[in-house]
Amino acid sequence: MKQSATGRTAPSPAASAEVRTSPRGSAASVTATLGVTVCLVLALAAAALWHLAQGTSGVGLGDIVRALIGEVGRLGDPDSGSSGAAVPSVNGVPVADIFAGSRLPRLAAGVAVGLALGVAGCLLQSITRNPLASPDTLAVASGSHFALTVLAAAGLTLPLWASSAVASTGGLTAALCVLGLAGRAATKETTRIILAGSAIAMALEAGTGMMLLLFKENTVGLYAWGSGSLSQLNLDGSLRAAPVIALALIAALLLSRRLDVLGIGEDAAASLGIPVRMTRLAAVVLAVVLTAVSVTLAGPIAFVGLGAPVLTRLLAHVVPALHRHMLALPVAGLIGALLIIVADACVRAVLSPTGAASIPTGIPTSLLGGALIVVLAMRLRDSASAGQAASVTGRLRSSRRFVIVLSVATGCLIAVVAIGLLAGSLWLRLGDVALWLSHDAPALIDRAFNERVPRILAACLAGAGLGLAGCLVQSTVRNPLAEPGILGITAGAGLGGAVAVTLLGGSRPLLVTAAVLAGLITFAIVAGLAWRGGFRPDRFVLIGIGMGYVLSAVTTFLLLSVDPWKTPRLFTWLSGTTYGRVDLDSLPIGLVLLAAIPLAFVMSRTLDLLALDDDTPRLLGVRTARTRLIALTLAAVLAAASVIAVGVVGFVGLIAPHFARFLVGSQHRRVIPTTVLIGAVIVCAADTIGRTVISPAQIPAGLMIALIGAPYFVWLLRRSRA
């Protein structure tokens, strides 16, 4: 036994080897492992038979078996082809062709993708020693998806190997970015690496969304594919992907001994001669290659790479041999294949094969993954640290600096508003503003201002609300990388809007009402789950992220299950836009800000204490749990009201408060007004750029903010990594 760097006593490699080589323990372990493997193979075979029996043609498993037996008989007796025997068919199509052209390719793709994602997730969780690491949470799938979407937008068609190479490049870049930004915290702070991956993925998805909107002709059908689809034209894709997956699995198995030793700690592994950095890099590259192949074959199917390794670890409590990577990697692959096949079969069984034809397989797996994050978050210990608190509180700044910053921010807001009034498909002059105010402007100019003023008003007020909401969230959960989206409001509002558009008619008042109510209900559920665990900051963050994934999956399901002509409209709204706004749309957020800003000032001293730690406010008589709930509820109302004005927008609540603390210090009586102004400037500027840069076409403000916010977020993560 020896003492680890963290102060815990860890078993020595020799002791571990002695335990593994015990005759009785070894025989029992081999038997148990063999039993688990056989059970998984049988379960996968049963699921495959169920999967093969489903399809839009109505052909059952018995029909397929009889047709295949007949085909084998004809191959064995060449003269039988002219005997006049009837070939089983449906609507003139031979059953054997249905099996070979539709059923088998879909099944083969599901098995290949599940195997690849299961092994990739197991590798990523091992090298990060983080139970929530996966191709999704590390942005690998988003990077591969973005790279392939760029190819499609450019009108390029490449063979599978070349597409896989492009997808691998995108996925590897994203993964290395996330791991590099998280640094050593990737193995210690679960929330940090998830926030880093989620933010990078958000930026990549924003870029993907922009490609889908700007190049509609070249990217038709990619929205559904972007959620993961097993639909295949033939077996070619699976057959070409199989050797790559097999080679990557073999290479991963060759790394298994090093990964086992790496699990006892980097220092101990290095002392035993393990090249830690090269081992981690090799594992990341293999995980990225496997993910890229799966994305190229079937799109980004979510969370199989998270669920399969987690279930493998649960089995390891019963079968300790599964702690060894030589066994854990193939078992995780089998579980991944089983998850995808069962998920796809369940959707087709519930909705009927015809009804499920337009529903991607990634939707039910996203539901599973989001629920799994929530469950794991409820079991995780809070990892907020003093380092995080110090990063939230920031440096002290002088009063003179505060006055200067406030003046400059006000001037920037005035300048951005003026540019927003003048810029657009029709550029105007300052004199036109005077004509419009005096009601003497020509009809064309009058119409331009009547369209732009409500948009600018909505952008400024929503930006101010999102900035203030982010300030409250970051101070309350003591995490400078948090933002209002982790409250679940963004995803909840999106689901409410999708329900209003797809199921209730889709009028503007109904959409707004449903979005706000759904956002607040989602926040109530997240807060209730977090409250049960003592309202710990990191737990609250992870529960919000998990709920967001679940609700986003349901939203995608609604978008793809109804009239496709409604999808672009709702997708644009979900991307954040001020298009078509009128003055009344800004009234709710304006009223909420009138009440929220004074209340936030009243709470400023308490927020200063909460940003420090849990002990200081408690010693001074502050009821931390209740205060957190009040502050987060206020943030939830602000974010929900902002949805009314500009739709679903992210990153503002992350950037504005952090930039404000950097400029004016940590005191909330200074941070609050600065944050409000910076948030207004960000959204107004993004909206102006989005409707001007490619006019008369427009880019949603939310996508512009995500693209602008990503570089800042990268800088922020690097700055706070220590």
Task: Give an overview in words.
- Helix content is 73%, strand content 1%.
- It folds into two domains: 99-356, ABC transporter involved in vitamin B12 uptake, BtuC (Orthogonal Bundle), CATH 1.10.3470; 391-483 and 564-720, ABC transporter involved in vitamin B12 uptake, BtuC.
- It is mainly α and 722 residues long.
- It has a two-stranded antiparallel sheet. A two-stranded antiparallel ribbon has the order 3-4.
Task: Name the features.
single chain, 722 residues, mainly alpha, ABC transporter involved in vitamin B12 uptake, BtuC, globular
N→C terminal distance: 31 Å
| Integer tally of domains | 2
Q: Structural class from helices and strands?
A: mainly alpha
CATH superfamily of the largest domain: ABC transporter involved in vitamin B12 uptake, BtuC
Can you give the mean pLDDT? 78
Radius of gyration: 28 Å
Summarize the structure.
By secondary structure, the protein is mostly helical. The protein has helices at residues 13-20, 23-52, 61-76, 95-128, 140-153, 160-182, 190-214, 222-225, 236-254, 256-262, 266-271, 276-298, 304-316, 325-355, 362-379, 386-393, 399-422, 430-437, 443-477, 489-503, 508-532, 537-561, 567-574, 587-602, 604-610, 615-619, 624-646, 652-664, 668-690, 701-720; strands spanning 2-3, 9-10, 89-90, 93-94.
Mind sketching the topology for me?
Elements: E1 2-3, E2 9-10, H1 13-20, H2 23-52, H3 61-76, E3 89-90, E4 93-94, H4 95-128, H5 140-153, H6 160-182, H7 190-214, H8 222-225, H9 236-254, H10 256-262, H11 266-271, H12 276-298, H13 304-316, H14 325-355, H15 362-379, H16 386-393, H17 399-422, H18 430-437, H19 443-477, H20 489-503, H21 508-532, H22 537-561, H23 567-574, H24 587-602, H25 604-610, H26 615-619, H27 624-646, H28 652-664, H29 668-690, H30 701-720
Antiparallel strand pairs: 1-2, 3-4
Helix pairs in contact: 2-14, 4-9, 4-12, 4-13, 4-14, 5-6, 5-7, 5-12, 6-7, 6-12, 7-30, 9-12, 9-14, 13-14, 15-22, 17-19, 17-29, 19-24, 19-27, 19-28, 19-29, 20-21, 20-22, 21-22, 21-27, 24-27, 28-29, 29-30
